[in-house]
Amino acid sequence: MNTLLKDVFGVFKFAEGLYAGIRKLLVPPKAYSWQTFIYMSVFSWLLSYFATGYIKDIIAFFGWLFLIAGTAWYTTEDPLRVPGTFMPVGAVITGFLVSVFAFGDQRDVITPRTIVFWPTISALITAIPEFIEGNDTDAKARIPKPQDRQRIIILVASSMLLSCWIQFHFVTDNWLRQYPSLQADTFKHSTFIVRTEAAVKIPQNGLVILEKLQPIVVEQIAERPWSEVEKWLLDAKQRVGNLGREIIKKNLSKYEEKELWRVEPRVTNTKSGYILDLLSIWIGPSSNPRGYYLKKSCRIEPVAAATNPENKITVAEIECDRASKLIPGSPPPQQ
Fold first, then answer.
1. Of all helices (H) and strands (E), which one includes residue 38?
2. Which residue of 88, 122, 134, 214 has the fewest CB atoms within a 10 Å radius of its CB?
3. What's the gap between Cα 92 and its chain centre?
4. Model-level pTM?
């Protein structure tokens, strides 16, 4: 029985201690405290929810200021340092809030700029108190001691370097999204890019161009009188070039690399007819100094018209390769 009573009293004592801890955390000991700023920020955001127009933005602005001030105050009362530095964890949290406030927007609270500036802002927040001496009511600017200047410079400089590397990540990620054909290249000679995924064997945008171009060319040549087809082939450079530009404009409009693709034909005589090579040529950056291009070959031959065997009209028959080939180097010259 005594043991049971002790357990019951122990539970009540634990609950009482938990309640006291929560009360101490939530109830401000005085009006001027970090809890007051947090509550003011929550109250401001509630008001901004019901407000409209510029009043809504003004109230939300002050809500962010109260949140940043309250968080900074709370996290600096008993600072926990980031391992290996004198940067408080509170400065990291406050820096994130400041970065979100300065560079976020209503649609995307966390943007690339938010992440990029976060380390630098956190380092500056850590360094600012080193230039101030005194208390809350009597503070004045001062120059840090020589031994403190060195660690401040190292902290800020290393944080700026980290921001630069994060920015470089977003830049390269944007390059690969706007210029996806770069993924088909090799980075084995790069000193700062390491491929972590399987290499793309063929640039998809170049492949799309030829796959869209082939049926249009086949439609304009197949079963047409041979004399008309030969005239078409004489003017193939302009015809295929115009078709290629239309296809690029329609299918690659969302990519910046649309300006780096060019479409050209190559016509070669054979004993039985012609070979028409459709080329999508990459004129952008490449590890190969001479670049590369994709080729799809079509064989064009004259045959007797099956629909009118009596007049023996000669028409064109065209057959194209099923797959496109990726060829490194410059395309062959026009003949």
1. helix 34-50
2. 134
3. 24
4. 0.66
